[in-house]
From TrEMBL:
Transmembrane segments: none annotated. Its EC number is 1.2.7.4. CODH oxidizes carbon monoxide coupled, via CooF, to the reduction of a hydrogen cation by a hydrogenase (possibly CooH). Homodimer. One of its GO terms (molecular function) is anaerobic carbon-monoxide dehydrogenase activity. This is Carbon monoxide dehydrogenase. Keywords: 4Fe-4S, Iron, Iron-sulfur, Metal-binding, Nickel, Oxidoreductase. Belongs to the Ni-containing carbon monoxide dehydrogenase family. Its cofactor is [Ni-4Fe-5S] cluster; [4Fe-4S] cluster. It holds the Pfam family Prismane. The lineage of its organism: Archaea, Methanobacteriati, Methanobacteriota, Thermococci, Thermococcales. The keyword DNA damage does not apply. It is an enzyme of class 1 (oxidoreductase). It catalyses: CO + 2 oxidized [2Fe-2S]-[ferredoxin] + H2O = 2 reduced [2Fe-2S]-[ferredoxin] + CO2 + 2 H(+).
């Protein structure tokens, strides 16, 4: 079903990642549209929407505020630009926090099933971590076996979502005391995760909260519930179930697809499914079955964050990040893409119709018309995974051999830098890192996270920002699609130390780590929070005093809005490379980029140019060092 391509994409300039341009060209030859093509068709995009000035929260609307002041200044209900912009942003935070936390809920459910002995295909892998989390939450572990501890922990964590009353979230026990004080003072302590998200929806209903300040403060509270509880739980429990990541070698970019193998891609976010697919696909039985169908075996590769999950723990190669999901199909060499949820473009089903790729959805809450739906459940995990892998293998003979093109590019990546792994690299204590920071061998640490966005050059801001920072002796850590971009650019290979400044280089060589550390998937931004908290505690400081910053240079998802907000809430100076839809209200823009700092010690900073952003971020780090009296 080739489509008429009205607007061609200038393929050469579109991406900083090797192999992307040639596949966009192939797409056009094959008559297939990608996100880049559809973005062109969307032009001009609605300016009211870009400014955040459009409201359709009730049926008296939709209402739009004229940014130039000559048209309406209020919606039908009287809502001002400030109210509308703040309400829209709050809904974005709510959706992002909901996505992370509902993912966490799914992991908690499996964890609970394992604790109760109901799910034979999963087990408690990292018992140390289980115990340390239980103890941190005040659950005594003495004289209890691991199942018992897990059962008690599961119960506490389940209540995080919907517990009644005003007691703070239990997971906040992992946050530094100084931070808690800041949040207490500002009335930002989240109660239950679902409650905060629900309250976002309530406050933004017509005729409830009209004050941008109180709306945004609730957004901050909701994001804290996401970062320090929802996402944090997803990370901790995934580690307990599947093992805490350790440095592991793998490969990145579309060149990890193999010409004469059955290629399966796992895409989405939840490791509960993807880990099983990998295990089953790698089994003797499935490898043999693939041979029967004329392939040399089965090859599994990851995409987006579930790709990060299996890369970090199992060394599964990663084929690409968000904007490369369609390109993977366009190679013509992928038998199946198996998805769970989040960041799955419905378009992959359309693209797949032009090739032979089967798109298999697995989640009751994520169906895509035109895909094969095989519902996953933890009780029958292995059987279902086998059924899915078999479909992929049986599809191998249908590969359109004359239309296969796998770009040659792939590169070595060292992933798996969990907090525990970083500590181990440091010899068991934070001391060497603290000394390096204090002496100025490393000037600071920046966490770069987030998506791709076809509005800007694919992966260019991700890698440029990272390179600009490491050459200034700033250690870069990160997650999500950033980490895949950095991996594909070679920034996570030991050779990347050549790009680091002399101080960072020395540290990396001593510790045998790359200058950019892969800390995992989107929910693993929580690992960054833990590192920041531990550094602050060890130094007797608050996170907002540390020479650190955050960045989402190419963000697009609502989850990224929630992450950015909880970084700010945690006291971090946070850069956004894509302008958020708040410019329709000077007041909201000022609160987010200035005033909020007085309340939580962090703030947003918007700069599309990654080189300029690096300079500003570096200057902020230097300012923080000055205040601490550390050498510059
Ligand atoms: Fe999605 Fe996590 Fe964004 Fe990538 S980075 S596009 S959210 S996969 Ni989180
Ligand atoms: Fe318009 Fe107010 Fe309804 Fe929004 S809530 S659509 S601004 S009337």
């Amino acid at each position: 079903m080739a489509e008429y391509i009205k607007y061609r994409v200038p393929a050469k300039g579109v991406s900083a990642t090797k192999g992307v341009a040639e596949l966009i060209e192939k797409a056009e030859e094959d008559g297939v549209k990608t996100a880049w093509h559809r973005l062109l068709e969307q032009q001009p995009q609605c300016a009211f929407g870009q400014l955040g000035l459009c409201c359709r929260n009730c049926a008296m609307g939709p209402c739009r505020i004229d940014p130039f002041g000559s048209g309406p200044t209020k919606g039908v209900c009287g809502a001002s630009a400030d109210t509308i912009v703040a309400r829209n942003l709050l809904r974005m935070i709510a959706a992002g926090a909901a996505a992370h936390s509902d993912h966490a809920r799914d992991v908690v459910e499996v964890f609970k099933g394992v604790a109760e002995g109901r799910f034979q295909y999963y087990r408690l892998t990292d018992v140390e971590k289980l115990k340390s989390l239980a103890e941190a939450l005040g659950i005594s572990t003495e004289d209890k076996d691991e199942q018992e501890i897990a059962r008690e922990l599961a119960e506490v964590l389940e209540w995080e979502f919907g517990k009644p009353g005003d007691e703070p979230l239990r997971m906040l026990a992992l946050a530094p005391k100084k931070r808690i004080k800041v949040w207490e003072k500002a009335g930002l302590i989240p109660r239950a995760i679902d409650r905060e998200i629900c309250e976002c929806m309530h406050r933004t209903h017509i005729g409830v909260d009209a004050d941008p300040v109180s709306l945004l403060l609730h957004g901050i509270r909701t994001s804290i519930a996401d970062g320090w509880s929802g996402s944090m739980m997803a990370t901790y429990l995934s580690d307990i179930l599947f093992g805490t990541p350790k440095p592991i070698k793998a490969e990145a970019n579309l060149g990890v697809l193999k010409e004469d193998y059955v290629n399966i891609i796992v895409h989405g976010h939840n490791p509960i499914l993807s880990t099983k697919i990998v295990e089953v696909a790698m089994s003797e039985e499935m490898q043999e079955l693939a041979k029967k169908y004329g392939a040399r075996g089965v090859n599994v590769a990851g995409m987006c964050c579930t790709g990060n999950e299996v890369l970090m723990r199992l060394g599964v190669p990663i084929a690409g990040n968000f904007l490369m999901q369609e390109l993977a199909v366009i190679t013509g060499a992928v038998e199946a893409i198996i998805v769970d949820y989040q960041c799955i473009m419905p378009a992959i089903v359309d693209v797949a119709q032009c090739y032979h790729t089967k798109i298999i959805t697995t989640e009751p809450k994520a169906h895509i018309p035109g895909a094969i739906h095989i519902e996953f459940n933890a009780e029958k995990a292995d059987e279902i995974a086998k059924e899915i892998v078999r479909i992929a293998i049986e599809n191998y003979p249908n590969r359109p051999r004359d239309r296969v093109h796998i770009p040659k590019h792939k590169i070595e990546v060292i992933a798996g830098f969990s907090v525990e792994a970083i500590l181990e690299a440091l010899g068991g204590t934070l001391e060497p890192l603290i000394n390096a920071l204090r002496e100025g061998t490393i000037k600071g640490i920046v966490g770069i996270v987030g998506c791709n966005n076809p509005k800007i050059r694919h992966n260019h801001s991700h890698v440029t920002l990272a390179k600009e920072l490491i050459k200034r002796d700033v250690l870069v850590v990160g997650t999500g699609c950033w980490s895949i971009a950095a991996a594909m650019d070679g920034l996570m290979s030991p050779k990347a130390v050549d790009l680091a400044g002399p101080g960072l280089r020395k540290v990396c060589e001593t510790l045998n780590i790359p200058p950019c550390l892969h800390m995992g998937s989107c929910v693993d931004c929580s690992r960054i929070l833990i590192v920041l908290g531990a550094l602050a505690d060890a130094l007797g400081l608050d996170i907002s005093d540390l020479p650190v910053a955050g960045s989402a240079p190419e963000w697009m998802s609502e989850k990224a809005v929630s992450i950015g907000t909880y970084f700010v809430a945690s006291g971090v100076f946070t850069h956004l490379g894509v302008v958020p839809p708040v410019m329709g209200s000077q007041k909201v823009a000022k609160i987010l980029t200035e005033d909020v700092e007085d309340i939580v010690g962090g703030k947003f900073y918007v700069e599309p140019d990654p080189v300029k952003a690096a300079e500003t971020i570096y200057n902020v780090i230097i300012e923080k060092r000055k205040k601490l009296g550390w050498p510059l």
